[in-house]
Amino acid sequence: MMDRRKRVKEIIKVFNQLYKDAQCTLDYEDPLQLLISTQLAAQCTDARVNIVAKTLFKKYKNAHDFANADLKELEQDIKPTGFYHNKAKNIKETCRIIIEKYGGQVPGNMEDLLTLPGVGRKTANLVLGDIFGIPGIVVDTHAKRLSNRIGLSSSSDPKKIEFELMEVVPEESWSVFCHQMVYHGRAVCKARKPECDKCEIIDFCDYGKENSK
């Protein structure tokens, strides 16, 4: 089989046809909304987060509103997303830090974003790519699953997968490629049973090649 860089180039060609309009599936209107929605999306579907966020962002309009929110009330407001005690605490603290250290604005670099409670590399890369135009590899459950199945990574560690993908995916494609993997993961390469017979990148996929014999 061709090396990983060549395979990725071919996969990108297919993805650019199938998912040329791929974008973040979280609904947001400003950097803070994306940051908070991504925090809420931990162990929760984007669809459910979007339902919760619709009401949430009408009630809390900026970092000050979240920082000054009653913790118990905020917990109830985000309860459907799960792990709401921790998420509410992190959101309040994140917004306090954003106000005190960054003048109420979401910071635009990895180092500062990673100092915010509940913000890991996945969230930071998503915010940097979609808000600030700084390319990053977002390793969510879809990117992890597809990277392993295709044969672009053999790791289960998101950070290792991120750096392995950075080596083989052209930098200008980092952000959109990750969005496209989400689309492909939902449409075809599903968690429980991938639909390899419908897959248009099967020729470049270790799992697909093995299971189509």
How would you sum up this structure, described in words?
The protein is mostly helical and 213 residues long. It folds into two domains: 4-23 and 137-211, Orthogonal Bundle (Endonuclease Iii, domain 2), CATH 1.10.1670.10; 31-131, Orthogonal Bundle (Endonuclease III, domain 1). 60% of the residues lie in helices and 0% in strands. It has twelve helices and no strands. It has helices at residues 4-18, 31-40, 46-59, 63-67, 71-78, 84-102, 110-113, 121-131, 141-150, 158-168, 174-187, 206-211. Helix 2 (31-40) crosses helix 3, helix 5 (71-78) crosses helix 6 and helix 9 crosses helix 11. The model has no long low-confidence stretch (mean pLDDT 96).
How are the elements arranged and paired?
Layout: H1 4-18, H2 31-40, H3 46-59, H4 63-67, H5 71-78, H6 84-102, H7 110-113, H8 121-131, H9 141-150, H10 158-168, H11 174-187, H12 206-211
Shape: elongated
How far is the N terminus from the C terminus?
15 Å
CATH architectural name of the largest domain: Orthogonal Bundle
How many individual β-strands?
0
Radius of gyration: 18 Å
Total count of domains: 2
Q: What is the CATH H-level superfamily of the largest domain? A: Hypothetical protein, domain 2
Number of helices: 12
Mind summarizing the main beta sheet?
Answer: none
Structural class given helices, strands, pairing? mainly alpha
Poorly predicted tracts of residues = none
Determine the CATH topology of the largest domain. Answer: Endonuclease III, domain 1
Strand content is under 5%
Mean pLDDT rating? 96
Main CATH class of the largest domain: Mainly Alpha
Helical content (DSSP H or I, runs of 4+): 55-70%
